[in-house]
Amino acid sequence: MAEFNAVLREKDNINIIDVKGFLDAHTAPDLENILTGLINESKFRVVVNFKELDYISSAGLGVFMAYIEQMRENNGDIKLAEMKTQVYNIFDLLGFPILYDILQTETEALNKFNQ
Amino acid sequence: MKEANEISYHLTVKSSTENLAIVRDFIRKAADETGVNTEVVHKIILAVDEASSNIMRHAYKNNPEGEISYSFIVSGSECTVIITDQGVGFNPAAVRKPDLPVYIKEGKRGGLGMHLMKILMDNVQYESTESGFNKLVLTKKIA
């Protein structure tokens, strides 16, 4: 069984999701549920902290593709932070860095919302 | 004719997404035992995960009771993974190259897998046979 978990916390009105383990077609719905939950509560400012994420497949990337427009239309965004190289490389292969804010640290990602 | 130095490993799983982890472990162990370098192993694992996720979703329409079989073969300087299923076939020529800005606007969550497989592997060949089997052959140079 793929190990994955996603924990939600809040800092300065920004919602931070800590993702851990393996994000694939089996586990992507867990993350999707958190994002749809935030949208339902009109919380559109999100930072995803990838520090403990070891693996991502396109099913995981798809979750970010599916919801970012809704967040942006509501003056929010999904900013991505603290990716391991092997995870960043997959985002990079598919051209995500041009369209998404991908930051080194969580603090930088949070600060981006205030720029 | 098999080459004398050919090594192969086989696995069959049900088409449930929870088996993706088993498939990844299978590839990792087989690749480790045959001495494929880590960076290449990661690419093969992801390509096989993408192929498997597509079969589960599209060929078997999320029915977890289908079967997917894997052969991992190292022969000379090449690694080949053959994946077969008995689900609904597809036309690979009809798969569009992903357009990320459009996908984001549309809120699309899929459509990246086949493209990713092609980037990660040296060769991707798909065949849907009349006997009802679909066969995907992924090849990667390992030396």
Protein architecture, described:
The complex is a heterodimer of chains A (115) and B (143). Chain A has helices spanning 28-40, 58-73, 85-93, 96-99, 106-112, and strands at residues 4-11, 14-23, 45-56, 77-81, 102-103. Chain A is α/β, with parallel strands linked by helices. Chain A has a single domain (4-112), classed as STAS domain (Transcription Regulator spoIIAA, 2-Layer Sandwich). Helix content of chain A is 43%, strand content 32%. Chain A contains five helices and five strands, in the order E-E-H-E-H-E-H-H-E-H. The longest helix of chain A has 16 residues, at 58-73. A five-stranded mixed β-sheet of chain A has the order 1-2-3-4-5. The longest helix of chain B has 22 residues, at 38-59. Chain B has a single domain (7-141), classed as Histidine kinase-like ATPase, C-terminal domain (Heat Shock Protein 90). In chain B, helix 1 packs antiparallel against helix 2 and helix 2 packs antiparallel against helix 4. In chain B, strand 2 and strand 3 form a beta hairpin. Chain B is built from four helices and five strands, in the order E-H-H-E-E-H-H-E-E. Chain B is globular, with a radius of gyration of 15 Å. Chain A binds chain B through residues 1-3, 22, 24-26, 55, 57-59, 61-63, 65-70, 86, 90, 93-96, 99, and chain B through 17-18, 20-21, 24, 42, 46, 49-50, 53, 56-57, 98, 100-101, 103-105, 107-110, 112-113, 115-116, 119-120.
Would you kindly provide a brief summary of this structure?
With 115 residues, chain A is of the alpha/beta class. Chain A has helices spanning 28-40, 58-73, 85-93, 96-99, 106-112; strands spanning 4-11, 14-23, 45-56, 77-81, 102-103. Chain B is 36% helix and 27% strand.
Write the layout of secondary structure elements.
The complex is a heterodimer of chains A (115) and B (143).
Chain A: E1 4-11, E2 14-23, H1 28-40, E3 45-56, H2 58-73, E4 77-81, H3 85-93, H4 96-99, E5 102-103, H5 106-112
Parallel strand pairs in A: 2-3, 3-4, 4-5
Antiparallel strand pairs in A: 1-2
Helix pairs in contact in A: 1-2
Chain B: E1 7-14, H1 20-33, H2 38-59, E2 67-75, E3 78-85, H3 100-106, H4 113-120, E4 123-128, E5 134-141
Helix pairs in contact in B: 1-2, 2-4
